[in-house]
Amino acid sequence: MTMEMWQLGFSMSSFRLALLLAISVPLLVGLSHYLGFEPTFGWLDDLLDAFAALAVGFVAAGAVLTLFAVVNFGMSWRELIGTISLQAVPGAIGAMFAQSQLGAGRAVQQKDRHAGYGGEIFIMAAGALFLAFNVAPTEEMILIAYQMSVWHSVALVTLSLLVMHGFVYAVEFHGQAPIPPETPLLSVFLRFTVVGYAVALLISFYMLWSFGRADGSSAGQIVTASIVLAFPASIGAAAARLII
User: Is the pTM of this model over 0.70?
Assistant: First the structure.
């Protein structure tokens, strides 16, 4: 529903849009492996699940954007495909996450498929991308970064780490990952919270680059904008771990 997303459908470079769509396929394949629409028995099944999720995303995005009169038959094919595609990617990721939360039968079946450390980091990356996608195109990311000093940035990084760590381990959410009693808290903080935040920060930079928000900016401005975007992205990463 944000104007920036509609404008990006017209102005975003074809290469960056195609790269974003290409990256979404292996991301959805991985999510299907852990959270998909039905029990899968190989990567081919997961690939079919990924394309099914993309189809859901494209249909839902096309229907809602048509309802809002954002897209119409007077648009060029480039504009039409670009606008719908940008909405379809987070829609497809949301379809995968929704099945894990709302599909009771699937959730029970998936209890036997343990993600492991690598899988948990991967799903954190997907959660970060899902939440960052919705705010990365907005002008507010750049405005907030412009207003912040170095000390604001340091404080925001600290807050992001604390919120991310507390969201998963301090708050009693259903599905919370248990911590073995003998595990040092510093080890948990470094292996999950710090690594997860680093992943969220890298994804934030990639999203800003994809949407052209890093073009013409200095290195310092790009870093600050990435830190700003990493705040919601890190919360998305922490929330995603709860549905593994």
Answer: yes
